[in-house]
Here is the input.
Amino acid sequence: MNGAFAISQSDKRPMYLQIMEQIKQRIAIGDWRAGQSIPSIRQLAVDLQVSVITVKRAYLELEREGIIMTQQGKGSHVASNPRLGARLREQELEQHLEQATLIAALMGLRPRELEHRLREASDRTAAKETI
Amino acid sequence: MRGSVTGHLILKDWQIHRVPILLTMAAGAIALAIFQWGGETAFVVGSVWFFVALIVIASMLPIFSIVNERKKQNLPFLMSLPVSTMQYTTAKLVSTVGMFLAPWLALVIAALVLIEIRGMLPHGAIPITLILLMLPLVGFCFIAGAALVGESEGWSTAATLVCNSSYGLVWYFITQIPALTDTWKSPVAVWSPTALAIFGGELASIPLILGLTFYLQSRKREFV
Amino acid sequence: MTGNYPNRLAIELSGVGKKYRFFSLDNIHLKVPEGQIMGLIGPNGAGKSTTIRILMGLVHQDSGEALVLGHPMPAEQVAAKWDIGFASEDMRLYESMTLGWHMNFIQSIYPNWDTAYAQLLLKRFGLRAEQKVKGLSHGQRVKATLLLVLARRPKLLVLDEPTTGLDPVARHEILRELTDVMADEGRSILFSSHNTQDVEQISDQITFIDRGRIIDSMDKEMYLDRWRRLRLEVPYGIKLPALPGIIDVRQDGRLAVATANAFVPDLANAYESSGARVNAVENMTLEEIFVANVEHSREEVEA
Here is the structure.
C-alpha cells in the first residue's frame, strides 16, 4: 500500500517534508479520501524504512495544517474536511504561479508576455486532452 | 536441550575439534591394544614413543584452540552470549583438559597394563611411574592456564618451552631420590612418605594452577 | 520483566570514562529510550567501539555507570545478554563450521529463536545453511552474523558497524530488517556507523562522538533542523557580522558560505540587514554536518 511512496535521500529536501508532500498528493488526487484511516506512525515508518521520529514529525505538521487527525488509541486518519482536496489544489496552483513569475522576472519577461505564454500553454494542454 | 550455557560452550569445543579428538582417541585405543596383546619388547617400546608423540600432539591441539579463539576473533561472538568471563574460563579449561585427558588416561592405563597385566615391570614401580606420569598433566594445566591468561601464542609457547625443558630435569631428579628408587624393584608397591608427598604435591598443584588462572582472569578489565 | 512504560531507557550511560595508554573515553552520557533507534557516529578511533564494548560488559569502565535494560554492566552482564543481540565488525564466526551449525548452536542456548524467521532471513539474505563460514564472502559473513542475532528477536540490538563494507543491495537488505524491528515499540537498537546515510535514514536519536568525547546527542529531526548552509552574496565594502549560531564562514570574492549549527530564521534577516544578500538557505546532509561538526569541535578544543 505504501510502496509508491518514494523517499529519496539525494533529494535536497528533508525526509519529513517529502513524506508530507506525498501524503498531500495522495489526498489531492483522491487516493486517500476524507475521513479514511491512514497507517500508524510506526507502521508507515517500517514501510518506508525511515525513522519513527521522521514520520512523527510529518504527521505532526500535517495535523497542524489540519490535513490529518490523530486520535489517542485510534490511530490517524485524513481530516474530514470536504474541501481538503480543493484547498491543496489551491495551494499548488499558487505555488506554481509564483514560481512562474519568479522565473519570468529572471528571464526579463514583462507581465504581458507572461500572460501570453500562459494562454499558449493552456491551449496546448487543451489540444492534448482532445486527442 | 536447554542446559547450562557453560555446558554448551564445552560441547561446542568438542564439536569443533571432533576430528582431531576422534583421531587421538582411536590412536590411543590402538596403542592400548598393542600394549595389551602386542609381542616383542622392542615393539612395545616403540609404542611408548608413539604414546609420547600422542601426548605432544594432544597438548598442542587444545592450546591451539584457546589461542586461536582470540586470534580468529571468535571471542566477541562467544562473549555476546549470556556468559560471564568466569563461565567462559571454566568451559575452556574443562574442554581443553578434557581433550588432553583422553590420550593421557590411555597412557596411564597402558603403564598400569604393563605393570599389572603384562608383568613387564614389578609393582614396586607403580609409585614412581605414577609420579612421572602426573608431570605431563600438571604441565598441561600450566600451559592451558598460561594460554588463557596470556592471550597470545607468545605466552603459550613460552609456557610450553618452560615445561618441556623442565621435564627432563625433573624426571632426572625424581629418579635420583632414593626413597623412590629403592623400592621400585619390589613386587609390592611401596608408598613411602616421600613418594606420597611428591604425588600429593603434584595433585595439589593442579587446583592451585587452575585457581590462579581463574583469579588472573577475573582481574582482567578488558576481556575482549 | 515486560511492559512498555514510555520513559524506560534501554541504555543509560552516566559519566562513563575509560583510560588507555594513548586514548581515553571521557565523561560519556548516553540515553537510548526504549523503542528507539540510536545512531552513533564519529571518526575512526573516536571511541565508538570502546563505548559499545563497555555497555556490553566486555570492557570494564574506569568510572561512571552503565545500565543496559536496567542491568548494571559489567556486573549483571549475563542477565542483560539474554536480551541483547550483539554484532561487531571485528567479530568472526567459526570458519570450519557451517552457518547451520551456528544456527543450531544459538538455538540451543536461547529460548526465543524463531525458526520460521531464521529460514526467511536465509532466503532474503541469499544464504544457505550448509555453507561453511570460510567459504562466505565478506558481505555474506556480515549477513550471516546478523541473521544469528536477528532470528532471536532480542529486545536490544547493539551493532558495531553493521553495514560497513557491504554493497548497496546487502545494505538495503539489512536496513530493511533493522527497520522491521521498529514495528515492535518494545525493542530498541543502538548502532554505530560510518555510513551517515544509513544513520540519517533510520535513527531516531543521533550521538556524535569524537576523540573520546560526546559532541552532540539528540533527536535526529531536531538536530538536522539546527544546521543550515547559507549562500551569501557580499557586496564590496560590506563586512559580514559575526552572528551567534554560525560556526564557519568561507568567503571567496563576493560569494560566501556560512554554516550554522543553531539556525533560526532571524540569522538570514541579520545578514540581509548587514547589506549581504541571502541567495539560498539549504539543509545539510548528515555527512556534511558530520564533517563540519568534527572540524568545529576540534578547533574549539585547540583554542
Remarks:
- Chain C has two domains: 9-223, 228-283.
